[in-house]
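Q: What residues go here?
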């Protein structure tokens, strides 16, 4: 029983990291209908800058702020570039994928190939005992961070004016525009917000996963799995997909590590076969 409880906590912790990463991708696609392949680079660059600034300043919070601000500025530049290319899947895909490659190479040039690590804040170091289960404090914090983030996003989506405008723009941008919603500005804000969430996820996950060259491809692949399962553009879908993949990854690595990657892609294959739009997609 202790084994399964530990794996449950571990899966939830990892799933909440995936949620913070993938929800931005889901929102950007829902608003712009752009499959943003540079999203993995937002996570990676935010982690590189956040960890570097955190190590130099001694504060991971300051590092996270630096990483988020830098990635938001990069995201705004990419969003502006997307306005000047044809609104077709191939040009948009090539631009965002090229941006990811450029950002990855710039990170390699500046930071080199040596992985970076950073310690969790002092209060979150060590372990805690929960009914006989010894579990790292920081992983519990990551799980709680994801839950709080999900609640905040849900409240914004359902209880605020900007959330209402975002939902309207996702459902019918032309009708929302005719009703007085500034859809281009809303698109810019949503793109920047999605980039900020990816960067924040990179810094939050750094004490657990570290920062290394090429991680933008890994996280992009996982975020695609999450949003395909949950449904592109769905906040609820990103949460369910992230938890499912987090739990599958944790359990499979513990029971049959040689098939861990395979087990993560099985749910995606089933969803694509049975409900191509995702669990909560339309």
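A:
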């Amino acid at each position: 029983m202790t084994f399964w409880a530990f794996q449950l906590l571990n899966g939830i912790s990892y799933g909440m990291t995936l949620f913070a990463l993938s929800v931005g991708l889901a929102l950007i696609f829902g608003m712009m209908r752009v499959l943003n392949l540079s999203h993995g680079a937002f996570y990676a660059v935010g982690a590189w800058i956040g960890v570097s600034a955190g190590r130099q300043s001694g504060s991971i919070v300051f590092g996270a702020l630096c990483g988020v601000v830098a990635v938001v500025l990069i995201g705004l530049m990419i969003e502006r570039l997307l306005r000047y290319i044809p609104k077709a899947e191939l040009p948009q895909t090539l631009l965002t994928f090229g941006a990811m490659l450029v950002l990855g190479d710039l990170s390699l040039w500046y930071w080199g190939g040596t992985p970076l690590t950073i310690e969790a804040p002092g209060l979150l170091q060590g372990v805690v005992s929960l009914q006989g289960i010894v579990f790292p404090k920081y992983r519990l914090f990551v799980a709680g961070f994801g839950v709080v983030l999900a609640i905040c996003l849900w409240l914004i989506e359902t209880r605020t004016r900007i959330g209402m405008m975002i939902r309207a723009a996702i459902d019918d941008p032309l009708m929302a525009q005719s009703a007085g919603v500034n859809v281009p500005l809303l698109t810019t804000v949503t793109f920047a917000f999605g980039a900020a969430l990816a960067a924040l996820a990179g810094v939050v996950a750094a004490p657990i996963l570290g920062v290394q060259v090429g991680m933008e491809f890994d996280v992009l692949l996982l975020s695609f799995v999450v949003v395909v399962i949950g449904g592109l553009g769905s906040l609820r879908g990103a949460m369910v997909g992230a938890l499912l993949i987090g739990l599958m990854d944790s359990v499979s690595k513990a029971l049959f590590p040689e098939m861990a990657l395979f087990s993560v892609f099985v749910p995606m294959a089933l969803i694509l076969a049975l409900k191509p739009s995702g669990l909560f997609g339309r």
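A: Context that may help when evaluating the design: The two ends are 39 Å apart (CA to CA). Strands lie at 127-130, 133-136.
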